[in-house]
Amino acid sequence: MTTNPSEARTLEAIKYHRGKLELLDQKRLPQEFVYDACTTSEEAFDAIRAMRVRGAPAIAITAALALAVEASQRRETFSSRDEAVRFLAAKLELLGESRPTAVNLFEAIGRLKAYVSATSLNLADDAQGARALIDAFVNEAEAMLAKDVADNRAIGAFGAEALLEPAGKGNIRLLTHCNTGSLATAAYGTALGIIRRVQELGRLDHAFCTETRPYNQGARLTAFELVHEGIPATLITDSMAAFLMKSRGIHGVVVGADRVAANGDTANKIGTYQLAIAARYHGVPFFVAAPLTSIDLSMEDGSSIPIEERPASELTDMNGVRIAAPGIGVWNPGFDVTPAELIGGIVTEHGVVYKEGGASGFDLAAHVSQARDTVKTKKH
């Protein structure tokens, strides 16, 4: 379905109403603004793998909602609770194989598997129990969608405060990399959500976005969002960032994350590491914006984070036309890992985490534990 983006106030990568999911084909932006129906887990798998939908939070939400839609359509076909359990487990396993680096996806899949297992214990092993399990699964997937939006807005607020406080009453100029806005999440965005919040407060002088080669998510997607939202912004090539910091007085760099290790080492779109190095040299604050679901406490540091390698054609071809010399070798990692020592702060939906004293890394385990305790307290 083709839509006019000017008709919508806020861009949406994901359109969902119970029983219906549509995904914005981001590979066709900015030339075309097209939503594709997604009715099965296999279709969601293909959309995620082909990067028609991308961004760690959006990937996780897409997987959950696609299965919710598929399960709703098959609700009346299950003869037993255990049959429904096996169906959901198999589909979740499939969806977990779509992208290896985004930990949000694995966190969501693990959480949904545990939810299905726990919920099924209280249901009869018959058709009625199966229907009740499917209904409960759909409710849980929808709750994940609502929480993602709320978390993004909280990240925006905390990040804006952290960047604005050192600036006093003046306006600030910010640089971001890749795409971390409404197109990468359920809505609003993480790092781009911080920029959006600074703009809402009337404190943004200018935003700069990198083109983010080789797939140009910055030029195609972030620039598209910034123009659509009326945010004053300028596009630069990835190789211009250091000179930009030197010549334009950048007040902060804000990026997203596909996975954050326990010490704060962060995997993000390739090119983030060199931005952090340039920011350190020029004394520019460097912040990572990530929901708790991006933090992987099972990894002590970033050395174990799996790095996805993308097809060579993304580097050698542009819009279907080969631009590289035939026969040249290609190395095309989709992500790099920025050491925690280069990161000034990590912004989550529960606040900004800073390093203690002269530590080179972050105590994210303590932050996650405190955040979970806060959530439990609010529930009771």
Question: Any low-confidence stretches, pLDDT <50, length ≥5?
Answer: none
Radius of gyration: 21 Å
Question: What kind of sheet is the major sheet?
Answer: 7 strands, mixed
- Overall pLDDT, averaged? 92
H and E string:
EEEHHHHHEHEHEHEEEHEEHEEEEEH
Give, in spatial order, the strands making up the sheet with the most strands.
Answer: 6-5-4-7-10-15-16
- Class computed from helices, strands and strand pairing: alpha/beta
State the end-to-end distance.
44 Å
Overall geometry comes to globular
Total number of strands = 16
Kindly estimate the percentage of residues that lie in beta strands according to DSSP: 15-25%
- The percentage helix is 40-55%
The number of helices is 11
Task: Explain what you see.
This protein has 380 residues and is an alpha/beta fold. The protein has 11 helices and 16 strands. It starts with 13 loop residues before the first strand and ends with a helix. 47% of the residues are buried. The mean pLDDT is 92.
Tag the structure with descriptive keywords.
380 residues; 7-stranded mixed beta sheet; 4-stranded mixed beta sheet; 16 strands; 16% strand
